[in-house]
Amino acid sequence: MSAKRDYYEVLGVARDAQAKELKKAYRQLALKNHPDRNPGDKQAEARFKEAAEAYEVLSNDDKRSMYDRFGHDGLRGAGYQGFSGGVDDIFSAFGDMFSDLFGFSGGGRRRGGGNGPARGSDLRYDLVVDFEAAAFGSTEEVTIHRDEDCATCSGTGGKPGSQPEQCTTCGGRGEVIQQQSFLQIRTACPSCRGAGQRYAETCQDCHGRKRVQKARELSVTVPPGVDDSMQLRLTGEGEPGARGGPPGDLYVVLRVQPHEIFERHDDDVICQLDLSVAQAALGDEMTVPTLDGEKSVTIPAGTRTGNLLRIKGQGIPNVRSGERGDQVMQAFVDTPRSLTDRQKELLREFAEIDGAKVKEQAGLGSLRRFLSRLAGNE
Ligand SMILES: [Zn+2]
Ligand SMILES: [Zn+2]
Fold it and tell me: Label partner for 207 (CA 20 to 30 A): which of 62, 66, 77, 142?
């Protein structure tokens, strides 16, 4: 195993360097050895990783004190393996430090710069579909607004018939070097946007943007069984690529509307089934709504609130297998509130046959009895 360089030496800082100095030193090294600026240079990449490792250790108080006392071995003893990840891992760890310089977003590398082909952007569209459409599938017409090549100038950005001239700002190179204190940063030329050439007179329709926003009608096939927040990917329906690059994709995010009666749980639909005391006690034959219209069901005698009744295959088709879930109905026995004298009489009679002592102030009486039974007084 080759000897590792001292972390302070790697960053070129004193052993008592403060956090600010460490950060500054690391930034300089990272910019100098950045893989984007040194394509194919293995040595620069090694230096870039070495600096990231040194910074990772020295910017962490615990690791730094371990390193100060025991050197590289101290860190190994503490389970630190060194910075083994690739360049992109370094960006995810320290990307924030460079965001102001390179325009990274999060850990991602800059893309689409320069003059090469670039893939078009992905687009997202939120599509509201009703419950039945999601259950059984549908075709929805949507209008997408996306950037497309300007037809007037054929995507050149120049006035039709005019010829481009070399950009004077960058001398045709397409990029410029900006000086920030003593750092040099290479960026796309702001005058020609990296193209290296520009038109004296720009296209009147796109004003030199080369692209115009167009509304496009698309037909989206919603497969049966989709659920809320599922995404459909329409390959190649995103924004067109630049300079011959492929188009991006369109992601359609489904927003399934709630149903009046049913609630969805996986592939089952759930609803509440209201039963009268008599229906619940004696059982009944009744019609209930389903996703396919009314269906007749048998209520077994002695059904209680909370009991589940299931109608097989009346749920939602599974989005992959197509097999349908069930309709699950939760029984709810509705206690009558306004009774006629005759109904009261019958219920009292029922209660007497049942052997229970029903007092005139019914509700509270039975509660008292229940409580005293709980207390062991009966
Ligand atoms: Zn330029
Ligand atoms: Zn144009």
Answer: 142
